TrEMBL record, chain A:
Keyword set includes Transcription regulation: no
Primary residence: cytoplasm
Similarity section: Belongs to the TRM112 family.
Name listed for the protein in its UniProt record: Multifunctional methyltransferase subunit TRM112-like protein
A single Gene Ontology CC term: nucleoplasm
CDD domains per UniProt: Trm112-like (cd21089)
Pfam families in UniProt: Trm112p
UniProtKB/TrEMBL annotation, chain B:
Protein name: tRNA (guanine(10)-N(2))-methyltransferase TRMT11
One Gene Ontology CC term in the entry: tRNA methyltransferase complex
Family affiliation: Belongs to the class I-like SAM-binding methyltransferase superfamily. TRM11 methyltransferase family.
EC number: 2.1.1.214
Keyword Cytoplasm: yes
Principal localisation: cytoplasm
Sequence ranges of Basic and acidic residues compositional bias: 454-488
Subunit relationships: Part of the heterodimeric TRMT11-TRM112 methyltransferase complex; this complex forms an active tRNA methyltransferase, where TRMT112 acts as an activator of the catalytic subunit TRMT11.
The organism's taxonomic lineage, starting at the top: Eukaryota, Metazoa, Ecdysozoa, Arthropoda, Hexapoda
Gene name as annotated: LOC108047623
MF GO annotations: tRNA (guanine(10)-N2)-methyltransferase activity; tRNA binding
PANTHER family: RNA METHYLASE-RELATED, TRNA (GUANINE(10)-N2)-METHYLTRANSFERASE HOMOLOG
Alphabetical GO biological process terms: methylation; tRNA processing
UniProt cross-references to InterPro entries, sorted A to Z: DNA_methylase_N6_adenine_CS (IPR002052), RlmKL-like_Mtase (IPR000241), SAM-dependent_MTases_sf (IPR029063), TRMT11 (IPR016691), TRMT11_N (IPR059073)
Amino acid sequence: MKLSTYNFLTSMAIKGVKVGFPLKLTINKKDVVESEFNPTFVERILPKLDWSAVYGAAQVAELTEDIPAVQPENIGENEVLLQKLHHLLFEIDVLEGQLECPETGRVFPITDGIPNMLLNEDEV
Amino acid sequence: MTSWRKYILWFAQEHVDFRVHEFESLVKMFGLQVRRLTKQTQKPFWLVEFREKEAALQYASRSVCLRAMLELYAHGSKLSQFHDSLRAHVDANREEMAGYFRPDTSFKIVVETYNKHFSQREKVEKIESMDYLPIEGPVNLKNPQVEWWYIEFWGLDPTDVPPEPEDILFGRLLASGQRHLIKELSLKQRKFIGNTSMDAQLSLLMANQAMVRDGDLVFDPFVGTGSLLVSAAKWGGYVLGADIDYMMVHARCRPSRITQKVREKDESIRANLKQYGCADRYVDVVVADFSNALWHPRISFDSIITDPPYGIREATEKVETKSTTKDSTRSEDMVHYPSTSHYSLQSLYGDLLEFAARHLRLGGRLVCWLPFHREDYDPKMLPQHQHLHLVANSEQLLTGNTARRLLTYEKCSKYILPDPSLVSTTQVPTPSQDFRDRYFNNALESRKERRMRKAEQREQGRVEMEARGKIPTDGRSKKCDMNKARFV
């Protein structure tokens, strides 16, 4: 699972959960997959992101020196930061780990890089 | 200087219904200025006018229906009229065309006829009928610098070929379409496929319908083996998928190839993208139930391309509570597989349209298939949504009485959270029966009836043939006799 996907996942499907975001991320095993930097794509995805979750992911991935805690303005003009965001959001691949619902503590496992967001019958 | 110029579009006569919508989608995507001169869309040769040559080339760079595009020099419906118009064109554009006729420019003339066969000698005669062309260069059949095309169109009906060709066209080859991709992305060589992987041509068409461009974010909520993501990624989209089937997403389900006993270790959707050189475009796949909300409200997709399960070859499923009186025999640490229940097509499409209305960007497109029984089809039965506008609808025949339609919706207004007290914004008219139920249990005629009817039809045809005085021949025995005669 890439950290960009992490930014979009919620646990709001669980019965009684209102927001279910951001999920609590634990990384047990990760991989760095190099991929081509596409500044327009990173720029286009920025307004869709929740910065607190971006920063949260950076903390878990131990990349906080790269990513500011508060979203700076005019990121589009800051190519260095865009590249760092690209690395954080698209090159770090969580192979094993888990996502935890902030409200109920329900754990969603990540195996072989694929998060399993299925719920049990009694949870929906 | 820009000026309108005429071009011949030569289409493959396959999925004929889809080419108009593909054309319109690409024109809209690139914002091309174009006029369509051929009104009859079934014809394999269209005459169109583009405002700029670049526009024509842009269209050819994406179309999978297009075989080739030619710059039109002459068109006529009678031979004499055609030759007059070609002479006039060459005279009028002598300066511009001089480069193609120079002594050091090699050339080749291709004769293409539709719905009528000509021998090589007849084709050469056709070429020689244009001996007034001031071509001075040498012939090069393998690798010419200029390729001229002479085309005769003899109607569409092979049982009723007209005495004269309907259209005679002459032009210069400008560009090929993208049909080579059909072979390049063929399922035969693909690493990871399943029972319902979409073939390369249709998935490329779907991505064109969705107007996928470089840097788009594309989502498939019923991803399966990711066959739709492959084509979207090929056009530069960043792809994200989800599916309820854990084994499928992890490529641990039963293999679909007859020669394969177990799945290979490295099969995956990511491996498919890597195979075609677009691993960079892979974002993620997630195991998730589509009927439950999962995605953050802020996410917006540029397009959603999907082929939902119809319940025939892949089950339509969602997670649901089933009331059982049995005591649970599970212990806490056992792996639990949630039970799934049937997810009716109506509610699935309702959810899909609602999801698209919520998560597409304005102007973004949803492209999906809808199966149905042909005799039931009524445009009124297509799902509707107040924020989605149906822009294209083309039919592909499946077996027997069934068909599916490729529906393209465009998000036309900003999503507003529906007032729960009002009726639903999605309208999925309920056909009298579910597609699956109808398919297996309640077809209008049973298989036996169908077989009997077909046999009756054949018998009737044979009787009519005899009445016309034609002696029925047994094709197979004739062939055997010919083979025997060879060895006597």
